[in-house]
Fold this protein.
Amino acid sequence: MLPDTLPEPLIVPRPEHTISRANISPNALKVLNRLKQAGFQAYLVGGGVRDLLLGHEPKDFDIATDATPEEVRDVFRNCRLIGRRFRLAHVFFGREIVEVATFRGSHAEGGSETQVTEQGMILRDNVYGSITEDALRRDFTVNALYYNIADFSLVDYAGGLADIEQGCLRLIGDDPVARYREDPVRMLRAVRFACKLGFVIDPDCAAPIRDLAELLGEISPARLFEETLKLFHGGFALQAFEKLRHHDLFAQLFPETDACLARQDHDFPITFVSRGLDNTDRRILEGKPVAPAFLFAVLLWEPVRLRYRALLGEGMASAEAMALAAHEVASAQQRRVAIQKRFALPMREIWAMQPQLERRQGKRPLVLLSHPRFRAAYDFLLLRAEAGETDPELAQWWARFQEVDAAERVKMLGGSAARKRKRRKRKPKTEPAAKPVAGKDAAAASDTDAPTSVPPSTGPAHD
Ligand code: ATP
Ligand code: MG
């Protein structure tokens, strides 16, 4: 709820702050100036202002105005109105989109333009208001700083400048619980901004998260998918994973994985996820592409692996067991975080290839090598080996198999087949009944030699 009396803003004139038009996207400046010329107020707001003040390069530039979405559309020909929950105008400049939002008012007097659940969650929010109301409706103080195109001043209604100075992430207002209830995604945003900015979540804002985490169950799986990608593809995935677990939020996004990690009967599940996320961070740092399919394959592997082993134990054939395990885990996950089909299919291919990579006879390895998902599946295998879940020799074999020429590949296949034959002959003398792979670790079931060191991972490969 907003306070009855609205605060006076702190206005910092141009010479006293560091935001320069030189660092603002020319298209965002065009939008600001055109709105101003049309007689409207226009401000740069949100992450753009925050990141410029922190000396970071903003991801995008959001604009706030007193023009209604329809009025914005009248000013720009290259403009489309979007959104139901929040109506916004998108102004298109080739591939760049500048988002223009009309100042939001208090939802208390919103009539049919605002909708709030009994729990206090805002479902619809299209009541327009003044810049002061707009500022206080935003999430964190550091996200509520406005750069005024009329005089290039900086306007701070919520104490965001002081919090930027102190590295503090603080919800606006004095009732964090109500703010999380209005929109539970703010809990995820708190973790994301704390990681991204290197800020500390204000203790009063951090404290209620654990108790309220379950409210995320009310958020659409499609929105949680977007938030999950922002958390894990922002270059701080490992830190986000640790913070999400710390605040009991990870269980809301990945309940089955969280339950597996909590069992702690092995170290490798946590090592595997941590290394996978660390690789993702390194790739982003190096400017390499990252794929949601690989990310979700990593995050969901442990429940898939356990289910796969259980099905093998019941006597199911390997390919069938993996397909069923993947289907069960992916379907359950869709109820929380909707993984789009174009990512879910390659994710399942990465998993399906894991048992296939353990077979090294005949033409199979050559067929696998030409599979479009081979590189991702191989990187996944490397992670498994690094985490101690599978034999590093298997990963080494595949590293070598990719490097050598055709003649050598034939030798590698023959050598492997010959070893296998020899071993089969010896087996009856030493082992009575060789149970297939049932109940065994998938890795231990492979025909590998003693563990050796693993080749360095190149990080997740991408489609
Ligand atoms: P980035 O774009 O770097 O992820 P951002 O702060 O710009 O960060 P956006 O999601 O682009 O985040 O949102 C733009 C602004 O809109 C935010 O800075 C904040 O002021 C406001 N905002 C976004 N989501 C919410 C929310 N759930 N509740 C309240 N305000 C929000
Ligand atoms: Mg933004």
